[in-house]
Known about the structure:
Blueprint: E1 2-7, E2 11-17, E3 23-30, E4 42-43, H1 45-60, E5 69-74, E6 80-82, E7 92-93, H2 101-108, H3 111-117, H4 126-136, H5 138-143, E8 146-148, H6 150-159, E9 163-165, H7 166-169, E10 175-176, E11 181-182, H8 184-189, E12 199-201, E13 206-209, H9 212-217, E14 225-227, E15 230-231, H10 232-239, E16 247-252, E17 256-262, E18 274-277, E19 284-290, H11 294-304, H12 308-313, E20 325-327, E21 345-347, H13 355-379, E22 386-390, H14 397-407, E23 411-414, H15 421-434, E24 446-450, H16 457-475
Parallel strand pairs: 1-5, 5-14, 5-15, 9-12, 16-22
Antiparallel strand pairs: 1-2, 2-3, 4-7, 6-8, 10-11, 13-14, 16-17, 17-19, 18-19, 20-21, 23-24
Helix pairs in contact: 1-6, 2-4, 10-15, 11-13, 13-14
Amino acid sequence: MYIGLDLGTSGLKGILIDENQTILAEAVAPLTVQRPHDGWSEQLPADWIAAAEAVLDKLALFGLSAVKGIGISGHMHGATVLNAADEVLRPCILWNDTRSHQEASELDGDPMFRRLTGNIVFPGFTAPKLLWLRLHEPRVWEQIAKVLLPKDYLRLWLTGDYVAEMSDAAGTSWLDTGKRDWSDDCLQATGLTRAQMPRLVEGAEVSGQLRDVLAERWRLPKSVIVAGGGGDNAAAAVGVGVVRAGEALVSLGTSGVLFAANDRYQPAAETAVHSFCHAVPNTWHQMGVILSASDALNWYGNFVGQDAQMLTQELGVLKPPTKTAFLPYLGGERTPLNSALVRGAFVGLEHATDRAAGTRAVLEGVTYALLDCKNALAATGTKLDSLIAVGGGANSTYWLSAIATALDIAVKVPEQGDFGAAYGAARLAIMADTGQGSEIATEPPISAVIEPVYELTQAYAAGYDRFCAAQSVILTL
């Protein structure tokens, strides 16, 4: 048996699978985000450990004596800083924290960063957060002995060792993404050294062994290995079998991602596409990333006093897009705008814009933002041959139908069951334990294929034109 642990923004999920990759048990523990100031987003690493303990307590009810390996995934880019005694110096600064936008701009102004990392230095990435700490929290800065990504702090608790893997490390602005190694030059530019970084492994490699005290607590064998794992999106891709060129996924979680696997490194930082290492060896991936996907729908639900799921259930079959354009930039945007300061808007409101029309406008706005991502990926030469949907928003057939129509590609929906990041992490544990490769990362059983509604293709193209026009107006404000 194998365990996959996925540290998400809103909760930590654990999954138990057998050697045939059949799901045996699942467990979830909630997490909260602290926002003490505008643009800030933080979590307490101690809460991650408490959540992991709660999840393992639940999984242990099914018996863990046959577990051979644990894989871990987690939200990327977070800055978890430790002193020489492994004490956490401050709350972790999360992926969607934009306080370091000035520092990000400063680093991105040095051509070395795009050349070595293959990416724009976004405000949400880890390196600018450390520059912010050096300027605003010098007492913390002076004590930093190690900088860990969120899931790798969880690994430290599991194994007692400082280890990162390629897919997550690629989102720090410190990794030479083509060479799959830390860049001493990028580290030096932010006042850090390789000694303050964890060592690197591939996601399908062994990163360490479970500490005896934890094995005893949950009655696991003392030989349990912990795999390198992956950043949340890379692990989710492994979970749904997106590991070969041409395969892609669309993730409708808190944020939105259009993820494409690549068999070679093909960076194009100017597109604001993320070019990262994949969680499996000798493979890379690209992502168009939008910061508000399901988060935008949840925001609208709170705004109108209605549960987000109920809002989508009342829509029926796909309709022509509304005249109202919604820009989903509630906390800035990455692809293609690269702006921490841009904010969202409704444009074209009229008397006929009722609650349902507003819901449709929100879904369409996120859909058009994903079309922006597809266009940015295409500019690098990446083509999407297949697309599979994951995340909570994938439960909305209406939304998937809009995406299929606007992006002009069929969207596959997995059968009921969690084949996301926790499942991918468990698959990586199998690879690390057995030496098998990415061939075991097969596509899950598909329950439905959502085809484009071709009679609405032109209407959605016109809606995208209205979206782009509204986007142009917002960017001038």
